[in-house]
Task: inverse folding
């Protein structure tokens, strides 16, 4: 472009050590957990350098180019180009050695890099981005290395209007894990170069991409952009009023068919996650069993009369290298069969066992899982996976024992009278303590059911059969 003046915003941030120092209140010493940053991007820039850059571009009669993270803080721009990238792609680049922004930590523990991104960088970036995308002249997807793809700003905003008014699917991604199985590889035709596939995240705007097909090709952008810019249309007034511009539901798949048990774990209560981490809501969830091997199980809740001190002492000893933790001495082992639905409100000790294919339906604060016992394993990186007994011990609901679990959390499905035309409509969950309602529609081959979206957010997942067609009675979408 041969600009008369050029500003590279990388020069407007402090040196790595100072940048990290400013983030210390949000990072903590933990490998995984920090505290949510509610600040502004300018707070982490060099104030004098930013002011000097503003002065530098004022009054220039020729072409001025300001590029980099935070460019619009130097000047709003006559032409604004926003380059975007999904958080899943960022994490893959962390694994490949990319440092955090403005840092020299390329070789640092990946979990710590993700923590810095999740609790600080991505919060600042989302807050900044949400103010810019409504006026951006071009939006550029950069997930494909060395192949950026741009779309006109008006086309981008029109695409968000379309996506928020009809069904869509985010692009799924699949990832191996120490406990992963082979079911997804066999059923989805996934590549053979991974040892297994543990997770599929499909419908997580926090991380997944939306693919927009235009005349010139396909542009992939973070699905989070839709959540940030069209929250009311996407979520409905009720969900938006409760959560704001957050997509509060996550569907993902957990594959242990031919694999191992998940880590024994617990999720924080709402009070705890707010006080300790600055999150507004917690990870209530459920396991819907898509498939299961003979003898498969789910670990859920505690035996009657479990002594908290004794159990925590056994966990401490096991995680310190002592005798392995005897999970079945303390935790209910419940048989798991296809189409069972296990409800898991926060504070309930749980994990799925080997030989299960789980559709996990949960609220989405992403990484707030307190591992209690990981069966003595190392992660795929050869390092011990982090265990959080100090956190976990403070949120376990010790009163969720066998009788309560069987009454409240295991296969609570019941028929409901709904004029949908389906052969059967059931409510399968979740528990009264959880914010998500699950319905199961049974439709004969060739039949149909009319679903009332109730002006709120709906996520559909096929749990049996080969395919389902979702169509509008009014022909509102293809």
Result:
């Amino acid at each position: 472009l041969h600009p008369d003046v050029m500003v590279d915003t990388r020069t407007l941030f402090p040196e790595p050590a100072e940048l990290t120092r400013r983030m210390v209140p949000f990072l903590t010493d933990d490998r995984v957990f920090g505290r949510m940053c509610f600040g502004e991007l300018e707070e982490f820039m060099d104030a004098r350098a930013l002011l000097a850059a503003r002065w530098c571009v004022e009054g220039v009669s020729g072409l001025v180019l300001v590029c980099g993270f935070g460019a619009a803080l130097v000047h709003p721009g006559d032409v604004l180009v926003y380059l975007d990238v999904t958080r899943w792609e960022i994490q893959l680049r962390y694994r490949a050695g990319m440092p955090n922004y403005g840092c020299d930590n390329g070789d640092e523990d990946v979990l710590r890099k993700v923590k810095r991104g999740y609790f600080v960088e991505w919060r600042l970036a989302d807050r900044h981005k949400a103010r810019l995308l409504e006026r951006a002249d071009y939006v550029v997807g950069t997930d494909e290395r060395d192949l950026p793809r741009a779309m006109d700003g008006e086309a981008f905003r029109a695409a968000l209007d379309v996506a928020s008014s009809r069904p869509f699917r985010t692009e799924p991604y699949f990832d191996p894990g120490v406990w992963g199985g082979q079911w997804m590889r066999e059923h989805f035709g996934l590549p053979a170069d991974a040892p297994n596939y543990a997770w599929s995240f499909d419908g997580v705007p926090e991380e997944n991409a939306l693919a927009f097909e235009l005349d010139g090709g396909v542009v992939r952008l973070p699905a989070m952009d839709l959540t940030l810019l069209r929250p009311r249309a996407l979520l409905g007034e009720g969900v938006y009023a409760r959560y704001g511009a957050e997509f509060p539901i996550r569907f993902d798949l957990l594959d242990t068919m031919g694999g191992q048990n998940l880590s024994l774990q617990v999720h924080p209560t709402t009070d705890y996650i707010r006080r300790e981490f600055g999150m507004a809501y917690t990870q209530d969830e459920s396991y819907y069993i898509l498939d299961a091997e003979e003898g498969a199980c789910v670990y859920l809740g505690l035996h009657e009369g479990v002594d908290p001190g004794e159990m925590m002492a056994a966990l401490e000893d096991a995680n310190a290298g002592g005798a392995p933790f005897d999970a079945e001495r303390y935790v209910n082992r419940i048989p798991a069969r296809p189409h069972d639905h296990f409800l898991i409100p926060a504070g309930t000790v749980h994990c799925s066992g080997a030989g299960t294919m789980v559709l996990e339906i949960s609220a989405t604060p992403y990484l707030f899982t307190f591992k209690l016992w990981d069966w003595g394993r190392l992660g795929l990186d050869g390092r011990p996976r982090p265990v959080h007994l100090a956190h976990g011990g403070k949120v376990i609901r010790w009163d969720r024992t066998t009788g309560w679990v069987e009454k409240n959390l295991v296969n609570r499905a019941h028929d409901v009278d709904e004029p949908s035309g389906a052969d059967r409509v059931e409510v399968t969950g979740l528990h009264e303590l959880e914010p998500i309602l699950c319905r199961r529609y049974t439709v004969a081959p060739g039949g149909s059911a009319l679903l009332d979206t109730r002006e709120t957010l709906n996520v559909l997942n096929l749990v049996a059969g080969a395919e389902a067609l979702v169509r509008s009675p009014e022909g509102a979408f293809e």
About this structure: The radius of gyration is 24 Å. The mean pLDDT is 94.
